[in-house]
Amino acid sequence: MPEEKRSPYELLAEKSKAIHIYHSILTLLHWDQETHMPPGGIGIRSEQIAQLSHLAHEEKTSKSYKKLLEELVNLKTGNLKAKGLSKPQKIIVREWRKDFNRSNKLPSSFVKAFSQLTSEASQIWAMAKKEKNFKLFAPSLEKIVAMNREKAKILGFKDHPYDALLEGHEPCMTSARVSKIFDGLQVELKKLLKKIAAAKKPDVRFLHRLVSDEKQSEIGHWIANAMPVDRDYTRLDLSSHPFSMSLHPRDSRITTRYLPKAFISNIFSVLHEEGHSMYEMGLPVEHWGTGLCEAASLSVHESQSRWWETLIGRSLPFWKHFYPQLQKILPGHLKGVSLDKFYRAIHLVTPSFIRVEADEVTYCLHVILRFEIEKQLIAGSLSVADLPAAWNAKFKDLFGLTPPDDAQGCLQDIHWSLGEFGYFPTYALGNILAAHLFSAFAKEHPDWEGRVEKGDLAFVREWLKLHIHQWGRTYDFDELAKRATGKPISEDAYCHYLKKKYSHIYNL
Question: Is the pTM of this model over 0.85?
Answer without folding.
Answer: yes
